[in-house]
Specification:
7 strands; alpha/beta; Rossmann fold
């Protein structure tokens, strides 16, 4: 079921991963047009935040790349070596048609990544209604020492608290340092904001 703008109903609520894949599979065809209509600012904000800490020649993993909206934002910031993965095959098919990524694959939920990276982005992925909080630990584990992870928590995710709890545990354990955390627009038409967070693995 969708609302008047075709966004899946109850998008920002916890659900089993199988249901999340179904939601994004069904939304794939309208996803780009819907988010353009809503005014989707987080990919551009997050790519700019990453560029302040990571050289443009760095290979960046776009985790949960969806249809490639975040990959396009990274290219606009000068990142030309992109890998992408998503658990929804229909989203990956659309991204593949855009020729944004040097490597692109359909991932398995919770599965280890094939290698470590010096830079990883997760735009709206580690969040309520998408990947669960423990996904943050997976991404940190696949950062090279000194590597940078840029991700976003939208307003419902911040309000939920469970995602910040995982982040706070990693900060307290000195696994990562928070380089920046900036609040700003996420989906303008939905009057929803997000925090763009940049972490360095120690």
């Amino acid at each position: 079921m969708t609302d008047d703008n075709s966004t899946p109903a109850n998008l920002w609520t916890p659900r089993p991963v199988e249901e999340t894949i179904d939601v994004y599979r069904d939304w794939a065809g309208a996803y780009d047009a819907d988010l353009e209509t809503y005014g989707y600012h987080t990919p551009t904000r997050l790519a700019a935040a990453l560029a302040r800490h990571v050289a443009p020649e760095t290979t960046v993993l776009d985790f949960g790349c969806g249809t490639g909206i975040s990959g396009a934002a990274l290219l606009q910031q000068g990142f030309n070596h992109l890998h992408g993965t998503d658990v929804t095959a229909e989203m990956v098919d659309i991204a593949r048609g855009k020729s944004l990524y040097e490597k692109l694959w359909v991932g398995e939920p919770g599965a280890d990544l094939p290698r470590s990276y010096d830079a990883i982005v997760a735009v709206g992925v580690v969040s309520l209604g998408a990947a669960p909080p423990e996904t943050l630990s997976l991404l940190i584990a696949h950062l090279s020492p000194g590597g940078v992870l840029a991700l976003s928590f939208n307003d419902p995710t911040v309000e939920n608290g469970s995602y910040d709890a995982v982040l706070e545990c990693h900060v307290a354990a000195a696994d990562v340092t928070v380089l920046s955390r900036e609040h700003g627009p996420h989906l303008e038409a939905k009057e929803m904001d997000s925090d763009v967070i940049v972490l360095r693995r120690e």
